[in-house]
Q: What sequence folds into this?
């Protein structure tokens, strides 16, 4: 399976703290994406990092990618209660027959307490 | 709103009935994807289209499932003879293939409950 796996499965923190979520995957990739999903809603795209990039920032988000370890991390700084959601990493397939589809892990459920 | 839209948002049906969902992608996007998500899991790929051509189907897409994108714009996903195991959130996404980044943008989903 090319499915990514997020760690931890659940994370509970106080507002203002930083939240770090990790993702591991199994095969080579072209890029890795992080998505957020509020309960019962669709997925919101957060950030995409390409296989030749090591770090990327977007606002309070920082994503790193280590292709040698097949892992990525998502850091949310100065968390807010509104950040409470499930966070998924998604990898693409870089082989011809699987181009297009994304492979998702089970997600990390982040709860930020006010 | 120029994002991906899906209808209906919720569908409750009895086992054995047929259901059809619709997805309207972002207008300039040529790729359209269907995913299924069950409780506590991440989305699982079902199928995708480039324009009107269905390019890939997952093994999850049994012969009771059919998807179409007749004019390369909106898409429909039909489930025939629904089973309780079909209860899930069905997500649609679209992207523009050809750009350096093939970001997929998701709709709000259709939640199916099979009684």
A:
């Amino acid at each position: 399976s090319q499915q990514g796996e997020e760690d931890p499965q659940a994370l509970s923190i106080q507002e203002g703290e930083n939240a770090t979520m990790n993702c591991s995957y199994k095969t080579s990739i072209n890029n890795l994406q992080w998505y957020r999903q509020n309960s019962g809603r669709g997925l919101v795209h957060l950030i995409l990092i390409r296989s030749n990039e090591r770090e990327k920032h977007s606002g309070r988000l920082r994503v790193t990618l280590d292709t040698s370890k097949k892992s990525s991390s998502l850091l949310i700084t100065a968390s807010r209660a509104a950040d409470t959601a499930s966070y998924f990493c998604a990898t693409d397939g870089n082989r011809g027959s699987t181009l297009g589809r994304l492979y998702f892990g089970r997600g990390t459920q982040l709860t930020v307490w006010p | 709103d120029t994002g991906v839209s899906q209808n209906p948002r919720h569908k409750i049906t009895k086992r054995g009935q047929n259901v059809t969902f619709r997805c309207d992608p972002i207008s300039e996007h040529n790729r359209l994807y269907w995913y299924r998500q069950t409780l506590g899991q991440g989305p699982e790929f079902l199928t995708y289209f480039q324009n009107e051509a269905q390019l890939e189907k997952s093994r999850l897409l049994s012969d009771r499932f059919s998807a179409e994108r007749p004019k390369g714009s909106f898409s429909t996903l039909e489930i025939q003879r629904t089973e309780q195991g079909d209860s899930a959130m069905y997500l649609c996404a679209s992207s523009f293939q050809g750009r350096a980044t093939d970001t997929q943008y998701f709709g709000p989903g259709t939640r199916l409950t099979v009684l």
User: Anything to note?
Assistant: The first strand of chain B starts at residue 5 and ends at 7. Chain B has a mean pLDDT of 91. The radius of gyration of chain B is 13 Å.
